[in-house]
Every structure is written in structure tokens, then in C-alpha cells.
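Order emerges. One example.
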Amino acid sequence: MSGEPPAGVFSIGAGFDHHEQFIASAGLSHGRLFGAEGLSLALDASLSAMASRVDLNLGAAPDLIDPLFFELNAHSHDLLLSPDHPLSALRNGTLARVGLKLDRNTSISLGHRFDLDQVDDGGQALVGGPDFVRRDSAMTTSALSVRLDYLSNPDDEGPMLDGLRLSAQIERTFEGLGSDSRFTRFEASAALGVPLSFGFHLQLNGRAGAIRAPSGADVPLLDRFKLGVAHGFGGDLLAPTGPTLDPGGANIPLGGTEAAVGNATLTIPLFPDVGLSLFGGVEAGAVRDPLDGVGTDFNTSAFGGLRWLSPIGQLSFGFSAPIEGDMFQKEPAFYFMLGL
């Protein structure tokens, strides 16, 4: 039998929390499309009471054009912002990126993103709300970006990160490219995986971002930083975090223009011979909006569960629960994930 890893991967997942109710997800990826080395395709989809998301990614990095590579993404995201109000946002768009591998560990890429957003208040006008949630016409975002990526161990294909992964990006919209919005967005992320004694493993993740816009300019609702909500910036295990609009107690998350989120996960092997392990950790995040004079909203959460590297793929069973929060008292969330 060949020791070569499988070219195709299929994953399914499910979860439940009081905010999004039942959550289902599925993904399909193939690393050697049509048998061509360096040609990959990935399809990811998720559905909940609050959101639906579909992403299609095509990548090309054949030896013929090495060290260049190309990526193309097409996406459709439909988000209901609050279970107590019909305000929704729909985004359809594409992201094209061309990159250059500077060495085995580092790459730089240039991208262009074009999104068409539609915000719908469901006939219940948000009197006094900001323009970006009261807009009843389509809004386009056309932006150029530069991204730098670094991976200390590019040969690592294990289920847990071993080494350091860094990424930084700056993105700016341009009216000359058809953009209705005007802003500059900065993002940076870091992840560190450290194998410990007795088979223990520690992983640290962090992400931060900031948006700057001219006075009076609208930052699109789906580009603003939101933690702990669908299509957010991160903090998936947190209670919804960030500035809100409160028409009749609906608590609609508007997002902010500055955010930071981080988590630490410790994995402990229970039965290494069968691939069964226990994991647990904490996550914390904060969002603020100095452009609109909104202060910092901070939340923390604890999580844990079991992970099994089974013969049919990786299975994960987990939960999360709030430790502290200024906005929502989120009930414990449970999830299940299977990868084939």
C-alpha cells in the first residue's frame, strides 16, 4: 500500500447553541483534481437558523509555473443578524489571488476581492440605525490586497500544528475599481503548535485587525469585525461580542472596526494506540468601534472535548461555555465533527 496521503477529504459536522440553534456543516476537498499535481478544489458549506454559507475554492500551483501559484474563491453568505429581528445581509462575490513563493516557508500574494452586498430590514425599518444597516440598495466592495504568509514547518501534515504559522494582510478599496465603500483593513494572525512531554500538545492562536475609513464613509456590515457570530472575525466559541443595535431588545450585532481574539488549547492523549485524546482550553476576544465612539466589549469562554483519530477519519465531540461577558449570557454550545 502506498504511504501517499489521500487526495480527497470529506468532512461533516453538527452542533447546537441557543443563538444559532442547530448548526450543520460539510466540506469536500481534493488535492489532485483530474489527477493533476498542484491543482486543488475545495467546497465548504454550513447551515444554521441564523446563516447559510457556501465557499468554492480553486487553487493551482503546478511545477510548470513554480514558484507562482493562483487561487480563486467564489462565495455566497446569507446572514440573519438576530433571532428577534428580520434584519439580514446577503453577500455574493469572488476573490482572485496570485502569489509568489519566496522560499519553502514564505510566500507573498496579491488579491482582488469583489463583493455585492444587500441588506434587508424585512420591512421593519431600523429608525436611528447607522447607514450601513439601513441601506436598501446593493452595495459593492472592490478591493486590492497584499498578503504575507509564513509557515515554519511546511512539511507538517499531522492533525495538530507543529511549529509557527504567521499571516499579515492589508486591503484597500478603490472607487476606480467600482467600489461603493471606502476603507482600509489590516489583519494579522499567528498560531504556534508545541509538542510537550508525554505526548501532550499545546497550541496558541491569535488574531487582530483594524479598519480605517474616511469621515462619514460606511464600512459594509459584513466587513466589520464580529466575534462569536456567523461570518465573524473569529471567536467561534465566544458569546456574540461587539457593538449592537437594540430595537426592542433585539440585540443586533453590528460589529466594530477594531478586534482581537486568542485561544489556547491543550491536548492530552488518553489512549494513544487508538488515537483517542482529550482537549480543553480558553478563548478570549474584544471588539470596539472608535469610528462611532463605541467602547470595548470583552468576552471569554472555556471549551473542551474528545478527539478520536478513527479508521474512517477524525471525530471530535466538544462543548463551550461562557466564563464572562458584557452582552449575552450564552448557553453552553455542543458540536460534533467528522472528517473522512
